[in-house]
Amino acid sequence: MKLFICSLLFLTLTACSSNSVDDRNCNFLLDIGVNVSIDLTLPQYSQLTFAGNSVYLENQGNAGIIVASTGVDFYAWDAADPNHALSDCSVIIPSGLNGTCGCGDENTYNFVTGTLAGNNGLNCPLKNYRVQVNGNSLLIFN
User: Fold this and answer.
1) What is the pLDDT of residues 29-64, one digit of tens each?
2) Burial class (CB in 10 A: 0-12, 13-18, 19+), 18
């Protein structure tokens, strides 16, 4: 009976899978601490008060941060293409609610979902940061 219980316990423990959805190929970006506040009343961020716009914040995260507005919600993403090693061409250039990296394959990402448009067999979504709205300020952090 002990052998049966031990075998059952062993099978139960080894049959469990990890809940992690991390793709082992998505390892180009570093976990860099981000804690930045932006004031939407400043001219450089005022376009975020209108739906469908995005802005680029330099010197944050891996290659900057892109903040996008849907008119209802705000989203913040690392501006480094997660499907490329960090380089000058892997910085995503925002255009409305989408952005494209400057590398030859021109990966294009959606700033609402963080996913790659057209997939192209690549699995790495953009690195997301949390956004907290406080009046006319946005706190972006991880």
Assistant:
1) 999 999 999 999 999 999 999 999 999 999 999 999
2) exposed
Which residues lie across from 100 on neighbouring strands? Answer: 93, 108
Strands 65-69 and 137-141, by their bridges, are: unpaired
Judge contact between 137 and 40, C-beta under 8 A: yes
With b meaning 16 or more CB within 10 Å and e meaning fewer, what string describes 43-73? Answer: eebeebeeeebbbbbeebbbbbbbbbbeeee
Q: What is the mean pLDDT of the chain?
A: 87
Q: 22, 129, 123, 120: which is closest to 67 by C-alpha?
A: 129
Q: In this structure, how many other beta carbons lie within 10 angstroms of the beta carbon of residue 108?
A: 16
**What pTM did the predictor assign?**
0.80
Percentage of the chain surpassing pLDDT 70?
82
Mean pLDDT within 16-22: 46
State the Cα–Cα distance between residues 34 and 26, nearest whole angstrom: 19
